[in-house]
Design brief:
heterotrimer; A mainly alpha (504); B mainly alpha (122); C mainly alpha (497); B: 122 residues; mainly alpha; Helix Hairpins; 71% helix; C: 497 residues; two-stranded antiparallel sheet; globular
Amino acid sequence: MTAEFFLANRPLWGVLISMAAAGLILLNDRRPLIRESITMLAAAGKFIIVLSMLPEVLAGKLVETVPWTAAAGISLHFKADPLGLLFALLSSGLWIVTSVYNIGYMRAMRYGHETGYYAAFALCLSATMGIAFAANLLTFFIFYEILTIATYPLVIHARTDEAVAGGRKYLVYTLAAGQLLLLAIVGVQIMVPEAEFTPGGFLAGQAPPALLGVLFILFMAGVGVKSAIMPLHGWLPTAMVAPTPVSALLHAVAVVKAGAFGVLRVVGYVFGPELINSTASGKILVGFAAATIILASLRALAEDNLKRRLAYSTVGQLSYIVLGAGLATPLAFLGGIMHIVAHAFMKITLFFCAGAVYATAHKERVSEIGGTGKEMPVTMAAFLLGSLGIAGIPFFAGFVSKWNLGLGALEAGNIFVILVLIASALLSTGYLLPVAIQAFFGRSSGTHHGGEAKPSLLYPLVITACISIILGVFPNIGLKFYELALAAVQSVFGATSSIAMGGQ
Amino acid sequence: MDAIAGHLNYWLIAVLFVVGVYGLAFQDNLLKKLMALNVISVSTIAFFLNLGQKVGAKAPILPGGVKGGEAAAYANPLPHTLMLTAIVVGVATTGVGLAMIYRIFKHYHTLEESEILKGMRE
Amino acid sequence: MTEQFPALIVVAPLVAALLVPLTARLSLAVTYCLILVSLMVSLTGALSALRYSLVEGAWHYYFGGWPPPWGIEYVVDPLAGIITSLVGLFGILVFFYSIPFLAGKEPREKGYFYSLYLLLLAGLLGIVATGDVFNLYVFLEISSLAAYALIAFGGHQGVVAGFRYLLVGTAAGTLYLLGVGYTYAVTGSLNMADLGNLLASLQSSRPVILAVALIVTGLGIKMALFPLYGWLPDAYSLSPPGVAPLIAGVMGKVSAYALYRLLYFVFKPGGPVLQVLDVVGWLAAAGIIVGSVMAIAQKEFGRMLAYSSVSQMGYIALGIAIGNAAALTGTLLHIFSHAVAKGCLFMVAGNGSWWGRRKISEMAGMSKAMPLTSATLVVASLSMVGLPPTAGFFSKWYLLMGAVEKGSWIYAVILVISSLLTAIYFFRVLEHVYLKKDPGASLGTPAEEGRSLRGWELAPSMLVPTLLLGLGILALGLFNAPFVDGLLKFSLPWRTW
């Protein structure tokens, strides 16, 4: 085993390290300390492995593993390209933060059966890495399904009737989506055997337009469920019955972003932006995305349960990414990719805060949030920062992506989308700001226990809140998300496209 | 008319087969079903035996010292041997079936299928 | 000795079947040794014949030295080799599995049970190894009779199920025999290879068409092709739990093998056979859906598994009907993946019924009492639904590829719908096992008192085969590429390499 072997197969190790961790966790049923240490070590290790690939990918090289034939027409092939590495860095980095939060939260809530919980969590991250680094549709599909199965035990963790029903709904939506995706992949595989994700797409001209249209619908239905495009979004608010760290990482970052990532991959690397633009498919996608943004934001206004309000907000925000894919212009694509990053940090902050409030003050409704700002100032300050970011205020991460989306819409000549973006900004201000304002200036309702959130809950949310601001000002700092996004866009659209450094 | 008269043996075998199938499907008594199964087997056996017959053929036995003649003068013995096997299979099946019927009767005290099925579900 | 291996595959269990009732009265240990030795000899024969067939070509064994087409010959080509190995392996695993279930019986009864068990295996192995269509009938009846009698061991309900299966199964065998009769009438030969040559020019003649129809109907009944599956739910679910994994896991598959062998290697896909295959395809599709729908309606775990088998046998029949290389690979892979998964599931059902859990509602909270069995249940369920990385996903993949390649999108959609339906009834069971509270601390007492389990949930002879099959599902899934390239590729009717 030479050093070359280790280096070349880094995407594979990134996937396997948390699978191994999951196994080890299962063996350590009675030792919580060891369980949690394994989780932290695996998270750190995975992040380091992924980070080590950053310099090479930025320099233009791809880190590839040797394809391993799993069956005729199925080869497991991992490749770290800019888009995949961006997603992987995001997920693995946030896993570290979430693991700290997990430990604090689970100890506070005392649900029980934590071994299975941590093991399933590790397996989910493993599957997310697999999705990020998948070099062809089959590898993507296999890990997509593994993600579905691995998140199920997490959704039903509370073991109440409500949780079980929520899990059932989740499975129905995601399994059905998976089967539609499988049909689409089989169709593509027959036409173009051993096809890999190619920047700019590879399906152009391979089949009559009608067939391509059917395949596109199947693909979008398949990845659209996980990216919560309306009307396929029904599982997400119901899945909020999961413990908050699950909602935070998985349903704000890993699972839903895997779906949005899938949309970007299908549009950019399977069909290609030219094909999308030359047919009506892009416009239809934009239509669904725009409708989702508006309807979800309106729905969020009506929700009293804080986590469900955040869930509907997520539904709307995810469609920004879908919007970017559907517009299929370089700047829109860039905006969509950046929004994966921006929304992840902002939403995870909001969920962390919601969970901290629930664990410390046992409040879960917006109507009872009054006075929490006095007891938990840092938490609610972070919530305020996250809210401003979602609304798209300049100097927050959300602004960079929105700006690029707006420019991209102009590029595509789509004024309607700009109106949608503005309306959405107003609506998100409407459903998020009042929460923070109520918390600080509203009357306290009922007794409040516990004061500020404990450190293991507090530090993660402060960190993510700060990152949201930092990324708003310096999008390229640290993990070079902006450069990666730019590289991805350039490879998809060709290096001749002109891209303004918006927002800097 | 010739199509029937020329192959009367096969038509009779077909009638036998249908009688057996009717008994198997529409009789309620288990013992009668088993008998119908035997009728089906017999019709199949008869079918095979008919295949080996030739007009004016002799039995394929050579008495000591006599040399054989044309193959066409003797009836084909192969279907007979095959059917010996099939008859044995039929006997074994009937034996197993009767043993089961005996057991069923001991427990359910009836051999009518509809009553047995009702008794089974309880 | 080694030249006799193809014959020993069948003869060893056959001889042992005759000796076991005698040795059982004398000593149980000797009986078990005899059974094991005969099964090992059979498996060794199968594996070495397989190896030979891959290296040198099919192994032709002439009984009594009579060359074909006058004599009966056994032909072990890669296809026969892998299926005999599968049956042999199952025979050994289920033998160990069945031991605790017979613990309370008299030695005489054990002797008869195992004699029938060995006869069943000999019959199944004979169907696969033989190269003569009439010989196939003989072994078909041997295995079926043994199965009827074994099912009758399952209590007073089992006797009725066994008898009704006897009626239907014997009728099926007779239909097959009639088909053989018609082919004999036009060709004068009973040897499969010889028939393959002779029938080539006779494809469209009426006797041959009738023969094909009769044979397909007969074997179709045996493999529970829609709408001829009525015998299956009772037979599978009411058979004694010790032997159900073998009957459910392997019997239907051997009949499917026989159909595959006859349609593709003897009758060769040509005019009438193609039309018959079309009809088989529609029936298979109907069976896939009906089986799953009926499974959802079941309250007992064993009956649910039985209806699921109807659906899954439909997958196999569908692959045979589609008929291109990908679909046939899917069929062969599914024969293995379903045998292993369904055998495993019936072992789980047996483990559950050992502790009195027969209905799905009684399986509530089983994960606490029987964690290893429940984990195996999870893996097997994933394979039945067809989720990666289990074997069931890969066989479904090949079938989908085959269907779409041929342009039969409707079959692909049906496979997908079936996966979702299967998910419904299997995940419902998993919900009960993992998420519901156990109604009572222990339901019912085990069949044998005073057995020390040393903290394990079940006796090792029951637990180990269950776990081995569970691991087999994963292994078959992860390593299906070498399996397909190394073995299944050579079992197709034509060269694909």
